[in-house]
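Hi team,

As requested, here is the filled-out complex form for the glutathione run. I kept the field names the same as last time so the parser does not choke. Let me know if anything looks off before we queue the next batch.

— J.
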Amino acid sequence: MSDPQLPKASLYVYKRSIWSAVPLLALEEKGYGPDEVIIKQVDLSEGDNFTPSYLRVNHNGTVPTLVVPLSTTLDPEIESRYKAIRDTKACHVAIVEFLDKSRSPQSHTHTTSAAPAPVLAPATIAFVTASNKVIELLHSDAGNPNELMWLNARDDSELAELSAQFVPFLTSKIRALDELIEGNKNAEVKVSEKTVLFWENKRLATMAILDVLKDGAKGSQELDASAQLKRDEYFKAARSAWFNVRDVFMQLHKEMIGPYVLGDQLSVADLHLAAWLARLAMLSGATASDDGNTIVRKIEAHVGNGFGLPKDFSVAEARRRSGLPTLNIPPNERQSRFAAFWDAMKERSSWKKVYADDLH
Ligand SMILES: N[C@@H](CCC(=O)N[C@@H](CS)C(=O)NCC(=O)O)C(=O)O
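And here is what came back:
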């Protein structure tokens, strides 16, 4: 049983954020009990991530963040101290690595859950290298899933759709930043200049996208010269981003053993890949109920320019390795590794929980 006196870890997330999905998947995969880590929602659309109190937790103003009590003392009389882990990536101490190590198959102290605690860290040096490469690729500039979301329109009709979807979100984000900037001017205790600069830069970056999206419902002929120029530049950036993601896919393909990144066993890299692929699939018009072959087809069509992922993975083998029925599967049928990965991942209770309300 967990001791109510013990300080708990808090995980700050936003429900529609891609990188929040990674530690949420990890919590399920590691068998953490529901009361072991407090989940705190940070509403990015309301600018909750920019408030001075959240910036004290994570000065980057991003989710996810895991705040863990330092285990220097377990004495409830002494105020517990906390440290924040601000990144999902594996470059230093990252959130998923921390969650992985904190609940091991051997230690079942301070836990309310009897669920198994599989090790998610890769088992060999070669696997660590492959896993890190995959995680780096997924977090690279060329693979940036948030960038691909903001740049998910390469013609007028796609822009109209994207605009209807995101103008309210961006408008409310700007409003939140304005309130913080204005509020600080009149406040008795002011925030640092660095924080004001941070808010102003976030405002500029958000405004640059909103500037293009706010006119999204208009046809090209209704735009003035400056708006037309902005739209042209946006399309140029969008085409280039969606062109460059082909290379990320091909490099990932080379690293994947299948059906999971490192073969039969789920590891840290799969949690990043699951979140990334879910986002790419969503941006390509897929839904959570689509199977692996369907999401691959939709992604290929959306990336366009004749893009095709190699179909070199045995369907029967993929299903056998993921513990799925292999009845009526022709032995020579092949599919993309991403399709096999998707079908394997979709069966897991972690995935079903995180994507219960559809892809994000
Ligand atoms: N490198 C960070 C990236 C986190 C990140 O980009 N988070 C996004 C949501 S998925 C965010 O908080 N964006 C808020 C903003 O930029 O306003 C990680 O891997 O944790």
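Two things worth flagging: Residues 134-143+245-352 form one domain. The CA atoms of residues 26 and 175 lie 34 Å apart.

Thanks,
J.
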